[in-house]
UniProtKB/TrEMBL annotation:
This is Scr1 family TA system antitoxin-like transcriptional regulator. Residues 16-70 form the HTH cro/C1-type domain. It holds the Pfam family HTH_31. InterPro entries: Cro/C1-type_HTH, DUF5753, Lambda_DNA-bd_dom_sf.
Amino acid sequence: MVKPPSPTLLTLGRIIRFCRDAAGIRQADLAKTLGYSVGWLSNVETGQLRARRDQVVAIERALGLAESTLTDVYDDLPHDHPVKRFERYEERERQAARILDYEALAVPGLLQTEETTRALLMAGRPADPPDAIENLVARRMARQEVLRRAAPPPLWVILDETVIRRPVGGPKVHSAQLDHLLDMADRPAISIQLIPLATGAHAGLVSTFYIFSFENAPSIAYSEDPAAGHIHERPELVRIFLDTYHALQTSALPSVASLSIIKEVRDEI
């Protein structure tokens, strides 16, 4: 059975259609302005398709509506299923023009070795069969293709020092992971900074998060808790994550000093 659209999605579509009609704009003309097909806009207006938040913002602007006229309704939509939400995360990661990453617990997925990924997944998903783990490993490794492009997006990473000191996978895997971090940091598009343990309390002890910036769309943030990941698109929420990231930058060591500590930890293994 096909799941019916949510009442909020139907309401959003009706408001878009009402505002378009009130502005005297034909569906075909609005679709052309937005750069989408008439079928796409028709599905949005009938509640059959959930547009992205940046697309709803574009509709607001194209119709000359006050800010938040449509996005306030959009923000009341039910959350995606976790699997679909992570698929959206992967899509946005591939599209990003710049990635800001803060990690409090583990090496970020884009910089993990295959062995580190496998060790983390096996520890975090003890009930999963080996083939399921291997599928997840392959999926995470595939995400790293974004860094192998001819012109990869700049990746700025801030790590709590505990990340590089935790021996995930044992000494051999740990040492190889630190070598990999050092190798990746040699790339011009990648910056790695550490927040030293001596800092004590800092702004990043609450959660890990990522911020994606785009060429022609608003920035978004992504955070995780033990149950699921969460995509944040509301500008005021993204601003909180950006402010937190900037606060973390003031606590982090410069890249040269950070890489020196990573080398020291590697040599101690």
